[in-house]
Every structure is written in C-alpha cells, then in structure tokens.
Amino acid sequence: MSAQWADELWRIGLSLLAALLLGLLIGHALLLICLVLALFLFLHLRALYRLDARLRHSKSYNPPDVGGVWGEVYYLFYRAQQRQRKRKKLLVSYLNRFKMMTKAMPDATVVLRQDGEIEWFNKAARRQLGLRHPQDLAQRIDNLIRVPSFVAFLRDKNRSGPLELPSPSHDNVTLSLVVVPYGKDRRLLVARDVTQLHRLEETRRDFVANASHELRTPLTVINGYLEMMSDLPENDPFKKSWGSPVRVMHEQSLRMTSIVEDLLMLSRLETGPREVHSDVIDIPSMVRIVAEEGRVLSGDKKHLINVDIDDSIWLRGNQAQLFSVFTNLLFNAVHYTPAGGEISIRWYATDATIFFEVEDSGVGVAPQHISRLTERFYRVDVGRSRDAGGTGLGLAIAKHILENHDARLTIESTVGKGSIFRGCFPLNLAAKKPKRERPVMVS
Ligand code: ADP
C-alpha cells in the first residue's frame, strides 16, 4: 500500500473517531459520523469530477498540485501519459522515416488487401502505374489496371515469377511486377521499370536474328560449291589433293547451316506472336512416325525402340512445332544411348496432365547439369554432342515450343543408367479424336 493510501485511511479513521467522541459528548454520535462520511464522499466525488473534466478537456501536460490519494492518481496518469507520448513520438518518427524511404524508392509500391483493394501506395506508383491519390485508395486495383495478364497474375496466388507489363500510364515503358504476401492478409505489389533491360534483350534478339538471317545466304552458296567439289570424280586431280579438306569443310558448313537454322527458329519463337492453338492434331500417328524416324536414325546401333500410345488422346497445338519437339527428344535419346540400348516412347494422360515421354538407357546426365540443359549451346559433353551432329540448341527450342503450348519440359536422369525427358501438357489442350480420321501432315 502506498504512503498516500495509508495517510488517507488514517485521516478517515481519525475524523470518524473525533466525530464519535464529539457525538458522544453532545449525544448525536450517529449524526456526526454520517456528516463526516458525507463530507469525505463529497470531497472524493468533487476530485473525481475534476479528474474527469481534466481528462476530457485539459491539454496541460503537468499534474495539478493536489495532495493525498488524488495527487498520486494524477501523478500516475501523468506518468502513463508521458510514456504514451514518447511512444507516439517514436512511432511518428519511424513512420516519417518509412514515408521518406518509400518516397525515395524508385520502384512503385502498393499495399493491397486480400481482395486487391488498394490500402496505400507511394509516389512512384502514381508515376509508373498511373494511380491517383487519394481517389484510387480503397479501389480494387484490377478495376484500375484492366490488362487481362495483370488480372490473371493477381489472382494466381501460387505464381512466384515476375510479370512484365507495359506501363499503364507511359508508352514505351516496361514494368516488371512482383506480388509478395505479408502479414495476415496483405499483399505488397512492387513494380520496377525494366525498360532499359527490355531494350537490351530486344537488341540481343534482333542482333541474333539479323546475323543468322544474313549468314544464311553466304552459307548456302559456300555449301553449294563445297558439295559440287565433293561430287567431283575420284580421279579428278583437284579431288585427289583437296578431297579430304573439302569433305571436312563441307561437314562444318553443314553444321553451321543447322546452327543458323536453329537460331532463326529460336528467334521466331521468341519474337513471333504466341499462337492460339486451334489445330487438332493426331498425335498418336505423329508419335508412330517419329518412332519410325528414330529407328532409321538408330541404324546400325540397333536400339530397341518401344512405343506405348494412348490412341484416344489428340491435342490442340502447332503440328510442325510439336513434331520438332518430339523428334528432338527421341533423336537425343538415340544419340546418347549406346548401341543395343532400350528406348521407350510413351503418350498417355493422368487426371491432370498429358505426357509425351522418352525414356532411354543411355549415358544419363549428372544432377548439376540437368537444370542447365535447356540453355542455348549448353552441352554436357561438347565433343560427343558435335560428333552426334548436335547444335546445343535442340532442348532450348523444345522448351520454348512447349511453353508456347502452356506445357513444361521435365528431365529425370541418372548417370550411366539413362534419362526420362517429358513434355507435360495441360489437360485443357486435349482434343477429341474426330469421327473421320484425317491423315497426319508433317511439314
Ligand atoms: P544437342 O544438339 O547437343 O543434342 P540439345 O539442346 O538437344 O543439344 O541437348 C543439350 C545437351 O543435353 C546435350 O548436349 C546433351 O549433353 C544433353 N542431353 C540431351 N538429351 C540427352 C539424353 N537423352 N541423354 C543424355 N544427355 C542428353
């Protein structure tokens, strides 16, 4: 118990005792005790009323000069008030620092509620996303930026990668957007200006496309002449002395031609419009043709090529592109499987996915290489790839084509045991086999 409370109790006790003694003297003890109690009640009610009035209206930070219990109460209030004021000051300074930081940030930052409602945004968001302050606060962001890819991006809670989007408020500006969930039900949308990077990437793509295009004609001419020289009769004096170098030159120029053709194909896939897949393709027949070509390529290596096809599954897609993916995966299996090895080609579906699968019993790929196989010119064993006539671009092209079909390429492999390369297509690309079958056309 504090000293003030002890004093207060003493005061009441002594007052009551004095009232009792005086009351006994004059014969009105009860009346005097009641008067003393009423006086104490009045004093405390008045103090309570003053405290209430002070809490409601007073702006003074100092406690009034009151003694006793009420002085203590005022002091405690004052102390709590001081502590709260300090905490508030600290919070305000944090908030100001945070505001200054986000103001200085070049990236647009928007705080969203779970349903996409805008709670807060910084200055860069006004500039880059065209948001207006304060009108757009509490608006749903997908009502303000109505680009379908953005709306789908916002809805897809599992997506981790960024979305590239033209800025809604500036022509020629490209933004890269990420959404990060935080707290209980908030999301942070961050948009970065990647125009410069985008331009560089475009320049690189244009350069590769133009260079490949320009190389095509001279290579065709060189190939033609080298072929003519290779075809000279064996007893021709030129062939006698230059036959071997001409053969090597011809081989190399053919290799260069395939690289240029593959680079052009990649450029077309990267820059061309994403196709809407409306062709219904007889994949089972296509897979049989691919298997037959694989057997021809295998030739003397005499691989055992098994085919397991679900004839009921057809697909909507680009016929020539899919043919190129399937042949690439099978030809790789043939190239990287020793003679007499087993290769299985499968075409089947599960509840959610359709698979084109090539399993081989070949050399396999070590785990550290697997994720890099789809990079351009990445080869585990450059010598072996060259011997097999590879360009190092096949899987990069396959990956692009599959992405064009909303499909993925997955690779499982064990060194010395073999590999499984899978094209995984979404079930919504499946098409019904038509009543009257059309012959498959492969260009
Ligand atoms: P390449 O023209 O060199 O075959 P790809 O892009 O098709 O180029 O393949 C890239 C690399 O992936 C190859 O060089 C090879 O090292 C590896 N690879 C591809 N398929 C297989 C396979 N079935 N078995 C083992 N390695 C493979």
- The sequence of SSEs as H and E is HHHEEHHHEEEHHEHEEHEEHHHEEE
Q: Determine the mean pLDDT.
A: 90
Please identify the structural class as seen in this structure: alpha+beta
Proper CATH architecture of the largest domain: 2-Layer Sandwich
Name the ligand types: adenosine-5'-diphosphate
Report the end-to-end length measured between terminal Cα atoms. 98 Å
Widest sheet: strand ordering: 2-1-5-4-3
CATH topology type of the largest domain: Heat Shock Protein 90
Q: Specify the overall morphology.
A: elongated
Low-pLDDT sequence parts: none
Compute the number of structural domains: 4
Kindly describe this structure.
There is one protein chain. The protein is α+β, with helices and mostly antiparallel strands. It folds into 4 domains: about 5-95, no CATH class; about 105-195, Beta-Lactamase (2-Layer Sandwich), CATH 3.30.450.20; about 200-270, Helix Hairpins; about 280-430, Heat Shock Protein 90 (2-Layer Sandwich). The chain has 13 helices and 13 strands. Strands 2-1-5-4-3 form a 5-stranded antiparallel beta sheet, with helices on both faces. Helix 1 packs antiparallel against helix 2 (about 30-55), helix 7 (about 195-230) packs antiparallel against helix 8 (about 235-270) and helix 10 packs antiparallel against helix 13 (about 395-405). The longest helix is centred in the first third of the chain and has 37 residues, at about 70-105. It is elongated. The model has no long low-confidence stretch (mean pLDDT about 90). The structure holds adenosine-5'-diphosphate (ADP). Adenosine-5'-diphosphate binds near residues 380 and 392.
